[in-house]
Amino acid sequence: MGRARQLALFAIAVMALAAGYAGWRAYQRTHPEQCYACQRPIHAHSRTVATAKGGSRLFCCPACALSEQRQEGKAVRVTELTAVNSGAKLSPNDAYVVKGSDVNMCAHAHEMIDADKRAADVHYDRCAPSILAFAQEREAIQFSREHGGTVLPFREIAASYAK
Ligand SMILES: [Zn+2]
Fold it and tell me: How far apart are the CA of 107 and the centre of ligand 1, in A?
């Protein structure tokens, strides 16, 4: 193999690596966080933080965090919610939720990454019925008028999952 040819091959290899790395970085940027429980990419407007198994964990949505509690039979304490309409951080003590509306960000994200497994997930989805958080009760009521579902203080829904 001539030297020029070796150099050309080397250059191609370097470019391929660079392209791969750039692609990986782009993937990291668009999927910066994954749910602790279900590994779905976390939607910025349903991000939920909860203490589970002795540490602070990130969940894709409140429904997923509360399902974790039900499945593990151990206390999962939600410490932070995200307002679905603004992306603002909310304290669980003051937040209101709409449960079971026609909007489920997790189901949507899941379809995109895992379309062929959808059929299996229809039977049970830990993120359904969806739970969306709001700062104000009136925002939650307004949302439920358009998308259905039940409006509840977050505290109440957390207590109902703890049973
Ligand atoms: Zn999840």
Answer: 10
Contact between 154 and 48 under an 8 Å Cβ cutoff? The reply is no
Give the pTM: 0.71
Tell me the pLDDT tens digit for each residue of 37-95.
999 889 899 999 999 888 999 999 999 999 998 877 777 899 999 999 999 999 999 99
51 C-alpha vs ligand 1 centroid, how far in Å? 14
* Domain count for the chain: 2
Q: Are 19 and 47 members of one domain?
A: no
Q: Which domain holds residue 63?
A: 33-162
Q: Distance from the CA of 94 to the center of ligand 1, in angstroms?
A: 22
User: Within this chain, do residues 37 and 87 fall inside the same structural domain, yes or no?
Assistant: yes
Ligand 1 centroid vs 11 CA: distance in angstroms? 42
Tell me the CA–centroid distance for residue 87 and ligand 1, in Å: 17
